[in-house]
């Protein structure tokens, strides 16, 4: 968690924290948060003027998570105590960053791969035309062990019209596997394929998807899914 974090989901077992997922990921599967006795898709949304805000757990790892505050996050304020300084116009022409990081455990399955993608959408139904960042080509992980990944996308959005949308982004990512020393890095990749219109701030919603090539049980753990100032 950084001082400039606006909103974030973090791993945990409490409500609205990122839940671990275990199963078959041959179909692109969205990251989820705990929602009482069930789970819900983890949709990271830029702050708008309309939400009714309750108390928030402070995002800072240096703060007591049991002490609730009224702020969105840090953004250079007190630990989870500042007012929401962001509204529907706060991101018009102002760059921002979306980050996701985590790890996965895979079994020894021939030709197994893992792909993590960040999409501009608000549902758990995968659509290739909404992907703004990814870990690159599907990453080979056919040997038992841990996979670690991180995506950082820098985005710029402007209010306007146009069938191709108004969000531009570039991203860097890394994915690696231990104990076998293998890694894959993509750097400063420009977004080219997003077709979803993004005419208002309410369309700035982000979802993370994981996809595996082979049928076998994987365990996926997202450490953090965050929106930040630049």
Summarize this entry quickly.
This protein has no helices and 15 strands. By secondary structure, it is an all-beta fold. It has one domain.
Mind explaining what this structure looks like?
With 230 residues, this protein is mostly beta strands. The chain has one domain (13-46, 88-229). 0% of the residues lie in helices and 43% in strands. It has no helices and 15 strands. The protein has strands at 5-10, 21-23, 29-30, 32-35, 38-41, 44-45, 96-106, 113-120, 131-134, 139-140, 145-157, 167-178, 182-190, 205-212, 218-229. The strands form 3 sheets. Strands 1, 2, 7, 11, 12, 13 and 15 form a 7-stranded antiparallel sheet that branches. Strand 12 (167-178) and strand 13 (182-190) form a beta hairpin. The chain is globular, with a radius of gyration of 18 Å. 32% of the residues are buried. Mean pLDDT is 83; it is low at 75-83.
